[in-house]
């Protein structure tokens, strides 16, 4: 293991021992659910483990709260997406609704797509979603984004390429 990786792991381990209980209480106050708070506290520390470097912290609780707030925002976004998906399923006539296994795969794919699109710059994400979900023309999107049609095409191609890469990675699972 690389020496800086050892240091980073040690830093996160110390932070975990010192602040995990505090973070879990902080999350529980926002969620009103101890199980979700425990899960999101773990997710927060997992996010720290995936960072190349954890900064030297003079205010560890403030730093953890900022990271946890991002994890919490993702949690709420996933919940909203899942509710919308379940509502769409409930609105389908029963004979056309997919089986439970397919529903689970579709939801997992939808969550992965949402996470991937969230990583794009806002104009790229907006252009792609407006074209794919709302059926806007390139000219309409260009007007909304105050950019050229060529830029809109580039944005849509960039997001589309991301979706293709995501599809390829899901196929390998």
Question: Can you give a write-up of this model?
Answer:
The protein has 173 residues and is mainly alpha-helical. It folds into two domains: 3-82; 98-171, Orthogonal Bundle (Arc Repressor Mutant, subunit A), CATH 1.10.10. The protein contains seven helices and no strands. It has helices at residues 3-31, 34-50, 60-91, 100-118, 122-132, 138-145, 149-171. α1 (3-31) packs across α3 (60-91). The chain is globular and about 55 Å long. 12% of the residues are buried. The mean pLDDT is 85.
User: In percent terms, what proportion of residues is strand?
Assistant: under 5%
How many helices?
7
Helix percentage range: over 70%
Query: Uncertain runs with pLDDT below 50, 5 residues or more?
Result: none
Sum up the overall morphology in one term. globular
The secondary structure category is mainly alpha
- Biggest sheet record: none
Q: For the CA atoms, what is the radius of gyration?
A: 20 Å
Count of individual domains: 2
SSE string, helices as H and strands as E? HHHHHHH
Terminal CA distance: 27 Å
């Amino acid at each position: 293991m690389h020496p800086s990786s050892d240091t980073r792991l040690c830093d996160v381990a110390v932070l975990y021992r010192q602040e995990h209980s505090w973070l879990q209480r902080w999350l529980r106050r926002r969620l009103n659910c101890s199980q979700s708070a425990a899960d999101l506290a773990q997710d927060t520390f997992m996010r720290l483990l995936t960072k190349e470097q954890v900064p030297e912290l003079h205010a560890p609780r403030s730093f953890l709260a900022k990271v946890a707030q991002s994890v919490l925002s993702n949690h709420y976004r996933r919940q909203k997406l899942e509710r919308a998906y379940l509502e769409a399923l409930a609105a389908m006539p029963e004979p056309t609704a997919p089986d439970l296994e397919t529903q689970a795969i579709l939801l997992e794919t939808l969550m992965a797509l949402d996470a991937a699109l969230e990583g794009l710059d806002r104009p790229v994400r907006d252009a792609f979603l407006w074209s794919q979900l709302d059926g806007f023309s390139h000219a309409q999107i260009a007007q909304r984004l105050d950019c050229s049609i060529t830029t809109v095409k580039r944005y849509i191609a960039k997001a589309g390429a991301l979706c293709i890469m995501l599809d390829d990675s899901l196929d390998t699972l």
